[in-house]
Hints:
The complex is a heterotrimer of chains A (399), B (168) and C (160). Chain B is of the alpha/beta class.
Amino acid sequence: MENKITSESFTIPMGPQHPALKEPGHFQFTVDGEIVTRAYVRLGYAHRGIEKAAESRNWVQDLYLLERVCGICSHIHSFAYCLAVEQLAHVEAPPRAQAIRVLVAELERIHSHFLWMGVSAHEAGFDTLFMYSWRDRETVMDILEGLTGNRVNYSANILGGVKFDVDDVQAASIRKGLDFLEERTNHYLQVLGKDAMFLQRTRGIGVMTRAQAEVLGAVGPTARASNVMRDMRVTAPYSAYRQFSIRMMLDSRGDLEARFQVRVQELLESIRLIRQILDNLPQGELSVHLPRRIPAGEAAVRLEAPRGEVFYYIKSNGTDKPERLKVRTPTICNLNSVIRLAVGHQLADVPMILAGIDPCFSCNDRMVTLADERDGSERLMTWSELRQHGIDFYKQAAK
Amino acid sequence: MKEPNVWRDVMNGLKTWARVNSPWVLHFNSGSCNGCDIEILATLTPRYDMERMGVKLQASPRHADVLLCTGPVTRQARERLIRIYEQMNEPKFVVAVGSCGISGGVFQGCYNVMGGIDQVIPVNAYIAGCPPRPEAIIDGVVKLLASLMPAQRDARLPQVEQEKAAIQ
Amino acid sequence: MNNEEILTLAEQIVKSWDWKTEVSRSQPNQLDVNILNLEQFVPIVVGLRVKRLGYLSAIVGLDLGREANQLEVLYYFCEQSSMIVLHLRIPRQNARIPSLCEVIPSAEVFERELREMFGIEITGLKTIEYLYLPEDWPDGVFPMRKDADLTMVTAQTGKV
């Protein structure tokens, strides 16, 4: 009679080598000692074939599909889609709806930057900052839930406007939440400017000059931290940004610290803008009707997502389904830059360099292949092992 | 009929108690939009704080009891998901988090998508939502653990053997 | 420079020399340039780049359908709120265009996506690996083409 216990025996865990895993790593770094000499990234783990799927769904169904391109910046995707479709239909959403769309977009930016702050801190080993910033982020999640009904995937937009209104009671609770967030943001601004361990991992690291940023096609805060003036809300204002203007935050240093500073400054600016919108919300309708079949034509829109410029192209053939829908997310532009930046840096800096562009892909499972130039060997590491390597490296350096 | 063995029963009870009271959880994203993943990460943060209940997020499959899996499973992620499942030690449990994990969600029918986690590996619990709230995720994991109490667990063992045979 | 100046300058450039182009303004703030001679494509882009007119924001591939028997590629060069759109039309069989990577390094990721999704060969593009599609993707199946046969790919479930 079999002894069932043998199937439960515990195996001794092996080290970084995983001989059973033969697939390629997400990232491949060739190293000479500690210095990275070549970097390559393998995408596709989150490739779901959305552009193709959009062609076989109607305009309304696509709205729900496109919200889920990315869970962190879902509103900006549906915002871009609505703007492009409304452009094709020669219709403009009413001013109140546009203001509410921008309000939610700025709230989303706040949530995204807090999220990123926590994740980057985690990459550097500062788990305390991770916990604090995510606790503070819960405030903005509450605001969004109170406004839209969901913490993530808010589904605020419909073709032609928005689904809900902002009344005085909600406005008051938003203001209260913003006061708290502003206080916390100022605190982080101080911490990030003074903490020695943090500065050691960010100051002078991952420097991208202005020329490099332009040539490599960087967008968003990554580009603005290298003094490149790219911010759709300012250079090509759309929707309610034409009435409620926002300032571009620039930094000339181009290193990781600059990228942190730009985002934290943007948080303060977003908070200011939301207050301005609440004080001056235009009266009127919340939506305008759009026909089921959208007139034939082409439309291209560019919006500023928390990570940078998002580009949407839609071609309609006059039916109730799009002919072609193209989504170009900001991270694909910035990834190119970071891969080039990693070369010449120490392996220990790689997690932070990647965190600096605020990448919008899965944050946990990333395998890394390390090829050593000196002896030709190859080994696989998990991302958390790479992160730990960075943390240990700097702990040693600090001694 | 198992022969009575005091030592084995005590060890089983101890292991179950350890697993039920302090499960180690591995989180894997098989191609999701990250919505569910950030809600899972949010369960670690001070407001929900799963760790005070003994639930610990682990990085290695070999240490994990529970696999929290999100996403509709893209073709690339499929290989890795199977590998991870195989590396986990018995008894192991899989929780599919979010609509995508259950059926593919909005991505049903898309060309690079398998259509749900149970299309690839056996799933023990499903947590619905797009994304599910952190409270719902914690509730789902807790319900799964409650079902691990000895009577139910021993009843599951033949099923576990079956599933293992199906994978080979 | 404001938008009008940018677009006027761009128009001058693409109409200069003996470049064979058709220019139109389909929308305010947009200049559409139909490039009729494929060999002039890269020199025209160099001409725009020398004047720093816009950065490459996206490359969009289109399948114009079986009847038209053509594919179209759109290159969006954006400066402030103006857009300069270069249109390239190529036959569906043996579709081939030159790469922009020597002039614009950041075009690499866009071109890789274009190649794997539409089956357009891009001469001069060095990286051969797929960007988004998995390694075990069947050859010759280009997902974004209208006549792509995806039955073999979608029919498989992943159950072990």
